[in-house]
Amino acid sequence: MAGGIRRRCRCRDADGKDMGSRCPKLAQRNHGAWQVRQELAPALDGTRRTFRRDGYETKAKAQTDLDRVRELLALAEPDDPEDREAISAMLAALDKRERLPETETVRRQLKAGLPLADKGTIGEWLDTWHGQERTAEPPRSPTSRTSGSTSSRRSDTFAGTG
Q1: pLDDT for the residue 113
Q2: Is-contact 71 51, C-beta < 8 A?
Q3: Strand pairing partners for 51?
């Protein structure tokens, strides 16, 4: 699958069009930013998908992310279109500033048959959390003592007898 790194900027020409990689100032070291682009597996409906990120300060940082994307895509066996689709869908669903997942984490999720792109909702997470068995007792607060004059005075005061 095609992909690569290039340097671009957001300068505009006299007509107001984005110059991108044609900007003459890109010869300067501090002008523009590096961009990563990697072609992904087509979506289920056949449309093309592309992983694209920009804003990298150095070419090395951009290359690191491009290498990670290619490692993730290589996790899918060539004869396994379902894994290739799952990895591509996960990469396409990432927010522009969201960190790329670790390769080992994705490998484990694929082997376990877990969904890669499903981040779930807070409600779903809470339902899972609430359904877990609790084995440890909650910590006792210092005011929950059963003996001592302070706690008995407090209970008498609140009960209206003190």
Answers
A1: 82
A2: no
A3: 38
d(CA 94, CA 16): 31
Q: Which residues 6+ apart lie within 8 Å of 93 measured at CB? A: 117
CA atoms within 13 A on the CB side of 130: 6
The Cα 42–Cα 49 span in angstroms is 6
Report whether 78 contacts 15 (CB < 8 A).
no
Give the residue among 69, 15, 60 at the shortest CA–CA distance from 40. Answer: 69
Quote the tokens at residue 26.
């890109």
pLDDT in tens, 6-65: 998 889 999 999 888 888 898 888 898 999 999 999 988 889 999 999 999 999 999 999
Q: pLDDT by residue (tens digit) across 107-144?
A: 998 888 877 876 667 777 677 777 776 666 666 666 65
pTM: 0.67
User: Could you count the other beta carbons within 10 Å of the beta carbon of residue 75?
Assistant: 19
Rounded-to-integer distance, Cα 77 and Cα 120, Å: 26
- C-alpha 46/C-alpha 61 separation (Å) is 31
CA pair distance 4, 99, nearest whole angstrom: 19
